Amino acid sequence: MFNLSREVFLDDTGSTTEAGIIMVALASFAAMFLMVVTSDPVKAALAALVQRAVHSGG
Q1: Are residues 36 and 42 in contact, defined by beta-carbon separation less than 8 angstroms?
Q2: Which residues does 36 contact at the CB level (< 8 Å), separation at least 6?
Q3: At the N or C end, where does the chain have fewer CB atoms within 10 A?
Q4: What pLDDT is recorded for position 11?
């Protein structure tokens, strides 16, 4: 019969590495998102959207 020892399930040696890789990926994504959101075309589009909403008068 196939017997798995408890050590197989309790092995967490890769968790620190995985967390580090995820943190680097998230930081990279955040930096790219910030660059896109603060770009001139996006700022202009958001400003136009706000102006249209303000002038629509509801």
Answers
A1: yes
A2: 42
A3: N
A4: 58
